Every structure is written in C-alpha cells, then in structure tokens.
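Q: May I have one protein plus its fold?
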Amino acid sequence: MRKALIIDDENRTRDLIAKMINSFGLDIEAIPAGENVQSGIRAIEEHRPDIVFLDIQMPDGTGFDLLKAIPDKNFEVIFITAHEEFAIKAIKFSALDYILKPVDPEELKAAVERALAAMNDKRDERQFEALQNNISAQQKRRLVLKTQESVHVVDLDQIIRCESDRNYTSFYLTEGRKILVSKTLKEFETLLIGYNFIRVQQSHLINLDYVDRYNKGNGGSVVMRDGSEVPLSPAKREIFFKILENL
C-alpha cells in the first residue's frame, strides 16, 4: 500500500486530511506526522512516503526550505496553502500541485488521484530547481512544461508565442524549438499575462518582446520576429496598440 505523509503545523489540519484520505478507499495510507521543517524531514526519512502533503508556512521555515534540505525527493509533492497568490503562482509555474485551506474533500481526492497517476512518470529534479527559482522575487520566472516524453524548463524570454489546439498548447521558442503540452491556452494565459504576454486572438498568446510589426492585410495580423504571422482579433486591436505605445 502507498503512503501519504501530511506535514502541517496545525494538528487539526493534519488529522483532518489524513482522515479524509483514509476514507477515500484508495490504495493509500495517510500518516499525519511532521509539524514543522525539522520534524517533517525526520518524518520523511522514517516513513519514506510516496506522497507528501506539505504546508508552506511553518514556524521554523517554509515547505520550500524543507524540500531544499532533502537531496533525493522520491515522492510526489502536494502543497497545502491558504490564498498566498505569490506562492501559488510559483507552484503553478513549476508544474507542481497544491490544495487550498480549508481543504475540500473532492479537491483533495482529485489531488491524491493525480499524484498516484504521476508515480509512473519519471520524477525530474529540475521541477524543484525551477520552484526554488520561482519563489525568489529577485529571479526571473521559469516555466516547467511537461510532455509525455520529458520535462522542459523554459525561461520566459525564450517563449515567442503560444498557440492552442483544443486541449493542447504549442509553445514556439527561440532557436526554432517547439513544445506541445496537453494543457489549455487559458491555463497558460492566466500565468503569463503579467509578464508581457497578451492574447491577441482566441487561439494565440504572444510575447510582446518578439513583435516585429503589424500587418494591415488579411484583416490585420501581428508578425513576430521569427517570421510567424498571428491574426489579431478586432476585439483585441485597441488594447494591443495601447500596450505597444507604452512599451
């Protein structure tokens, strides 16, 4: 049977999450052990869990500090957090999972099922390296893109544009690279919109740093520096030109 370890500084939260998980009827036993960074590290060494539910804010540090202290992370990580927008965004950029307090049973079960399914995939230390980078306000954000074959860690200034195809998104990068990810463009728009990206049409999100020119023909389009041409929606025209003026 798989093991899930819950590390949180609130006894009630630890016990509640453990009770919920054990009631789901999944092939996993929940252990509520670890109330801070130091006791959490000891609990991981003792129980060798398959999944770790990890509180972000603890008395002696953060869940990020705990991860940094563990060299071999042979487990899936699900963060437990309140509405801490900066931390949540860093977690999403790093393609890691989280649940919000107060914990919703259905969201918790879905998170456990995702973690159990992900155990068959190869874990990649670069996700945690990207996380350490993304939680620092001084560092440039790095986006983790997971495909069926591998994990890619991409600097935002390497992304020229993104294009959607139903539930998939293609990333067009510098040096002619292309990465296809099984996530919607809307998910990436939510992450990237504050970093000089704009959705110029339903299927297209572009990096304004790579805009070469605007082409009036064919109803209006944006020509990117790699030569690609992206249609500009009439509804987005005014905001696009306003942003360009302020660059």
